[in-house]
Design goal:
Length: 375
């Protein structure tokens, strides 16, 4: 509102009406600035309302806890207020996990009636579906966190889910694309759809997870400094990744359209991980690639990791793959590093011009033994 030539913003905070001076003269230009200020205040008020609603809901639930048991469906409804603070990918996986869990325990079951036996049946159900150990552990962990939430807020005395029923973690062998398979995939993708092809190439050149690549906006790319800004969905952290000359040249040649986009636009507008996954599975089917869990979109990430692990220090590969711990990189790419060390050892051992070479010493000892058989 305008008061004596100045702009003020008035809003209600709960039961209290508040008035804020924008310190702006009531001009046409300043009205736009005031509108932006009003929108910022509105956001803060909405966040506060949501937070208060969540706390009031939890107080109500906790106060009634001693006299009222709740169903799993109701528990999930309450938990979703906290779930809203997590990433989209986390919420999606939680939804998938609960859909699996409902095959064992119906949604209208009371949480107090869920038992240890249900957890065993849940794991068996996931195993029977031939899911990978990693997927089984992920889905089980999501449901387990829900029940720990219920324990924390006094709906349960203890959680019926514990980790002892889970299959052991398996250390997978890294399986990058063979060159012929990689070339066939990229060629088929380019023939099908240029955008689809560009996405696969960028997965290969950046080593990013599909969900992180699809969230990149034009303003996240800094061609002058040759770096890109990324938000890592898995950890919620932010990072800067190097842009190689190969990546920059490819984007300059094949993705010129991004130069005409606004900074806030996605470089792959309209693509989601599920859509990308479906297209990749159809492409594999056309090419006769049958292994469902061996060759996936994440194989592009494994391929670049394996490639650079043979040439770069492990710290550099960890930086490229956004691993928090170098040990994580070492665990996944140990075989590659071992091969690299062995090759360097062989190269040094076979140098005939090195007087300190161990092979020369052994050869001399062997000749000495041949001349003196009794020794």
């Amino acid at each position: 509102m305008k008061v004596k030539g100045w702009i003020y913003i008035q809003y209600r905070d709960g039961q209290v009406r508040r008035t804020v001076s924008t310190k702006l003269r009531a001009t046409e230009e300043n009205l736009k600035k005031a509108e932006a200020m009003k929108n910022e205040i509105a956001k803060k008020v909405e966040i506060k309302k949501s937070d208060l609603k969540y706390r009031d809901l939890m107080k109500t639930v906790e106060s009634k806890n001693s006299i009222k048991d709740i169903t799993i469906e109701r528990a999930v409804e309450i938990y979703k207020h906290k779930l809203a603070l997590t990433s989209h990918s986390y919420r999606y996986r939680f939804g998938v996990a609960m859909n699996h869990f409902y095959k064992i325990v119906p949604a209208n079951q009371k949480v107090s009636k869920v038992t240890y036996e249900h957890s065993l049946r849940f794991v068996k159900y996931l195993i029977d579906r031939k899911l990978s150990n990693a997927s089984i552990r992920t889905y089980y962990e999501h449901v387990k966190v829900l029940f720990l939430f219920l324990v924390k807020h006094k709906h349960l005395l203890s959680s019926p889910l514990n980790t002892e029923v889970l299959p052991r973690k398996t250390k997978k062998t890294i399986m990058p694309f063979e060159k012929s398979m990689r070339d066939d995939i990229l060629m088929a993708a380019k023939e099908a759809d240029v955008t689809f092809f560009n996405i696969l190439v960028l997965l290969l050149l950046t080593g990013l997870r599909p969900i992180d690549l699809l969230k990149i906006k034009v303003r996240d790319l800094n061609f002058a400094q040759k770096i890109m800004f990324i938000k890592i969905s898995k950890t919620g952290k932010e990072a800067y990744n190097p842009m190689s000359n190969l990546l920059i040249n490819f984007m300059s040649k094949e993705m010129k359209y991004i130069m005409d986009l606004d900074g806030d636009q996605l470089i792959f507008e309209g693509y989601t991980v599920p859509r990308l996954g479906r297209r990749f599975r159809r492409l594999k089917s056309r090419l006769g690639i049958k292994e469902r869990y061996v060759w996936t979109l994440k194989t592009f990430r494994k391929s670049i990791g394996t490639h650079y692990a043979g040439f770069l220090p492990i710290q550099d590969v960890a930086l490229l793959l956004n691993h928090d711990e170098v040990e994580t990189t070492r665990a996944y790419y140990a075989a590659t590093y071992i091969d690299n060390v062995r090759n360097k050892m062989n190269e040094l051992d076979e140098r005939s011009d090195d007087p300190n070479s161990i092979s020369i010493t052994l050869a001399k000892l062997d000749n000495l033994g041949n001349k003196n058989p009794n020794k």
